[in-house]
Every structure is written in structure tokens, then in C-alpha cells.
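Re: the 182-residue chain
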Amino acid sequence: MSKAKQQIKKILFVAQGDVEKWPAGTEVFIKNLARRLSLLPYRVFVLCASNAPGVTKVNGVTYIKVRYFNISFFSTISFNIQVLIKYLSLLTKINLDYAVFCGIGSAYSLMYLLKPDKTKRIYYAIDTMTKEYESKKDRLGLLARLNYRLKIYFDKKSCSVADMVLCSSRETLAMVDKRYNN
């Protein structure tokens, strides 16, 4: 089948970190995968946090950047609120085929609002917050405990709402199965 006859699929990747600038594993993974998919019959969008918000197109990938606030407790909440306020109407107009939410804090609120009959919602679990929380909880202060509890809530809800949950490792898969019954 020729490229002209192939239907172009629209895919969105969502990550809380700046995919173009942060050297973290999730962001590098998304940047590379988005770039490769843009060479195929995919129209690729990446929604991420950044110190330079706005919409840009680089190497065939459209980056939708939300202002990043470097306050660990509020970053997940502020990211979700900003996505809903500023970008929900834009993202619903795109008529996405797939939306891949990578890791904790990756706009769970948006995942919840996308209609599963139109957009397949995929949650990419990189690690589970419960494992990290359990290993540190005795050394955490009240605010840090609250932060983890909030992230565990988002992690669990993301797993329950997604049409598909992908895990980065066997260990992550085991933790998701054990903690969230998926």
C-alpha cells in the first residue's frame, strides 16, 4: 500500500518532564519514539512541561509545552490543571487515535476526559509509586508523605482508566498487578 493511501494516525505522548531538554529516561524514550513515529504515517504530538511554554514543531513532532513549576508537591497538580485549562480544547479538536501517558503525573485528568470510543488511552507505567513510597516512608516528613500519597492515587487511577497498561519492566508489571489489580 502506498504512503498516500495509508491513513495517518494521530498519536499523543504525555510526560511531565521537558521531552526536548531533560536527559531523564522517560523523556529521552518519548523524544526518540516520537521522532521515529513521525517518519511513518503518524502525526505525532508531545504534551510536556517546560520553562518555555507554547506550541512548536521540531523534526515532524508537534510539542505542546505547559509551564513547569519546580515545586515537587505541586508539580503534578499544576501540570494537570494547566493541561485542562489551556490545552483540553486543542487536544479534543485533534481527534487523537492514541494517547500514551508516560509515568506518574502525566495528565491523568486528560486521560479521564478522552473518550475511549475515539481515543485509545495507554498508560506506560515506568515504576509504581507504592514501591518507592514503601521503601522511604519511615524517613519522610508529612508533606513528602502527602506528595507520595497523591502520586499513588494518580498512578492507581491512571491504571484503572487506561484501555491498556504497559510496564517498563517485569518488576513494574508485578507491582502494578499486586498493588492495583490490573
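The mean pLDDT is 79.
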